[in-house]
Amino acid sequence: MLLERETELAQVAEALRAAAEGSSSVLLLTGPLGVGRTALLHQLPTLAESEKIRVLRANAAPMEQDFAFGVVRQLFDSLLTGAPEEARGRRLEADDDVCRAVFCDDAPLLDESGTPTIPEQALYGLRSMLAPVSAESPLLILVDDLQWVDTPSLRWLAFLVKRLHGLRAVVVCTLRDGYRRPGDPLLREMVDAARRELRPAPLSLGATKEVIHEQFGVPGDEEFARACHETSVGNPLFLKSVLAGLAMSGHRPIAEHAEAARSLRPAQLRERLASSLRAQPRPVRDLAAAIAVLGDQAEPDLLGRLAGLDPIGFQAALRHLHQLGLLASEQELRFLHRAVQDAIESSMTVAERERLHDAAAGLLYHIGRPAELVAAQLLAVTGSDHPWAVEVLRAAADTALRRGAPRTAARYLRRALLDGSLSGEGRARLLIDLATAERGFDPAACERHISQAIPLLTTARLRAAAALRISPTIVGLGPPSVGDLLHQVAEDLGPADSLEGAARDVALRLEARLRHAGHEDPAELAAAVERLSALGEEPALITSAERELTSVLLNAAVLTARWPADGVSRLANRILEREPATSGQVHTPLPLVVIGLVAADSVRGISSWLAMEQQTRRQGGTAVDALVNVQQAMVLSARGRVAQAREYAERAVRLAEVHWQEAGVVSTLALTRVALDLQDSVLIERILDGPGRRRSSSLAMTSALQFVKAAQDAENGRWTSALETLLACGRQLEASGWRNPVLFSWRPWATDLHRRVGDPCAAAALAEEELLRAKEWGAPVALGRALRVKARLMEGDPAVRLLRESVDVLRASANELELARTLVQLGQRLRPGGEAASVLREAAALASACGAPRLVERIRAADGSGASAAAPEAALTRTERTVASLVGRGLTNQEVAAELGVSSRAIEKHLTSSYRKLGVSGRRELIELLPRMDS
Question: Per DSSP, what are the bridge partners of residue 327?
Answer without folding.
Answer: 335
